[in-house]
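Treating backbone geometry as a discrete language has practical consequences that deserve illustration. No coordinates are needed to read the tokens, only the vocabulary itself. For completeness, the protein is quoted in full, as a sequence line and a line of structure tokens:
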Amino acid sequence: MIHTLDLGRRVELVSMDPHCHDISLALYLSGHRYRVHTYSLRDCAQNRVAFLRNAMASLGAMTLEDNQLLHSCGRIHLAATRRLFLTAAKLPTAADPPQPYPLQTFDKKSNKPIAAISHGNGEYELPLESPAHNGLRKLAELDIRGARLVFPCAHSHDALIGLLLPRALNVRAILREEEAAATRGVLVAPSAQKE
């Protein structure tokens, strides 16, 4: 018997979760609310889903209501939330949710720390010469206002910025990794395969 649910639009997929018997996990969007779901009936599956929900709520400072996640501003922030889900899925299931990342990271290339300075109203300042400036703009789909990066909702999202800041230093590698993960498990005709 096939069981399906109307969960909204699937926006991200982890096809094989190594922390729970390689089950598939997905992030769905309905309106402005996100839901982590699996159709797996394995013993660990529901605990894994609950952990991911709590990890996303903690790492992204999202609100958890009726097993659904939403941003405090009421907006979607799709790109950042997809990356939040993928980051949470890399973590092993634990009793306590992880803590949010700071608004600072270390850049190995320049051999110095890089900080995102929050000016409130969703505005963040980073050194323009840093690769993190452009990388963060791409990863979180931020607007540019002068030298500042700005969330279109005009609300601060420090937890999302902290999460994405280390990844923004090497945005090309992150995008390649996500593309590879998205195609994992997808069957491709022999004529379309790269040699």
The mean pLDDT is 88. The radius of gyration is 18 Å. Residues 45-59 form the longest helix (15 residues).
